[in-house]
Design brief:
The protein contains 14 helices and 6 strands. The chain is mostly helical. One of its GO terms (molecular function) is aspartic endopeptidase activity, intramembrane cleaving.
Length: 369
Amino acid sequence: MADSATEIPSILEESVKETVKNVTDKPPTSIEGLAIAYLSLVIMAILPIFFGSFRSVKYLKEQKESGQSHETMSNKDALMFPLIASCALFGLYVFFQFFSKEYINLLLTGYFFFLGVLALSHLLSPIISFMVPASVPNVPYHIHFTRGERDGRTDIVNYKFTSYDVICLIISLCLGAWYLFKKHWIANNLFGIAFAINGVELLHLNNVVTGCILLCGLFLYDIFWVFGTNVMVTVAKSFEAPIKLVFPQDLLVNGFNASNFAMLGLGDIVVPGIFIALLLRFDKSLKRGSEFYFRATFSAYILGLLATILVMHIFKHAQPALLYLVPACLGTPLTLALLRGDINALFNYEDQPAIPETAASDSKSKKTE
């Protein structure tokens, strides 16, 4: 009887400990916390698309003025992209199954630290140029390292930069060090937003057909890897790199040290973003003084993102965002162009018109002569 009396308090103590452990394993959230988290994700998703689209217009104009031809995605590239992405995703999944994710993430952290510093420097360059007083001189520098002499000389390093670029690099290195050592979610988001803006600015779809092929291919890719397998969700949760935007759902409870995150992959921002940027460049080519197709598709993207969040909470399951974003981003401009009589102009528009084969052969023969 005495033994049973002493066992009861110990059983109760173990039960209390187990209850406390279950509660603390998953940080508490609230309706307000969820609303703040997903509203923040939506804002962080639309800002890179908006600013990246206008930067892409400026970038294309600078390339044309300098006489340089920029790299664009072909139809073949668009067809192959989902297959290459699938191989990369499954390869990461296999690595995480057989190798320690700590070592893999350590390697990837160093890689994305380097890329993130470059992306942040590129993003900060116009901001620093605007903020630094005119009294501070912007001194140009040129690092030129060659091999050989005279006609046989080849460039190894030929890099031009200014003192403002050095300021950008120092700021980016400080933010990168913060991410490298703390892995804080704010530092992760700074890198992620920089990647997204640079991606929308520099990755150009040459025409709408290529965009349709790419979006439809990734539409099927996203559905298969989210609904068909657990590969996408497993990699997203194991992959500690700024390839996703995160925001804590328990921010109101735990502050900036929160740990229960809502997340959105950068692919769900950059892929629709480069198509929306193409529509802005199409609007500029029409010279009507409006951004009709860009604004309409941009609004459709926001609605598609909100629909993704709503369905995810109704069915309590991770959703492939492109399942909702692709129909919104493709259906809106195509329907509006059909109604407004711009469908032919939309499909005929090209950032970089293809040179006819006869003209290309003539120019080649002239160069040879």
